[in-house]
Amino acid sequence: MSEEQTRQSEGSSQADAVTVSDIQELIRRKEEIEAQIKANYDVLESGLQVDDEIVEFGSVNTQNFQSLHNIGSVVQHSEGKPLNVTVIRRGEKHQLRLVPTRWAGKGLLGCNIIPLQR
Fold first, then answer.
1. CB pairs under 8 A, 24+ apart, for 50-56?
2. How much of the chain, in percent, has pLDDT values that exceed 70?
């Protein structure tokens, strides 16, 4: 290998070298992404779940509920605004906060609410 080729080879390998700080930065970014994924998962886990019994949905509660149209109306008028929702889940009362938002699917909630069959 000529002296010129050796210098070019050394120059390109230095430019391609990965430093410890590069690796540390990648690890830091990976940890940030994993933390964001966990936070998003926690939100999904704490939202409405199958078999949740809704006892309050915004201004609609067990005292004034007439039909699912009441819930639909509250959702439509609350797009982009937080809604307080209370559910009974496995016998325990849980307070949730939902923000009806447009997404790729139908509706604003990303779920179907059906009447309780007793």
1. 51/89, 51/90, 52/87, 52/88, 52/89, 52/94, 53/87, 53/88, 53/89, 53/116, 54/85, 54/86, 54/87, 54/113, 55/86, 55/87, 55/88, 55/93, 56/84, 56/85, 56/86
2. 86
Q: What average pLDDT does range 16-37 have in this prediction?
A: 93
**Separation CA 65–CA 43 (nearest Å):** 27
φ/ψ of residue 109, rounded to 5? -105, -25
The stretches of the chain forming alpha helices (DSSP H) are 3-16, 20-46, 68-77
Task: Tokens 């006892």: give the residue.
Answer: 55
**Nearest Cα to 54, choosing from 38, 78, 75?**
75
Report d(CA 101, CA 85) in Å as an integer.
15
Rounded CA-CA distance 84/59 in Å is 9
53-57 and 83-89 as β-strands: parallel, antiparallel, unpaired? antiparallel
**pTM of the full structure:** 0.59
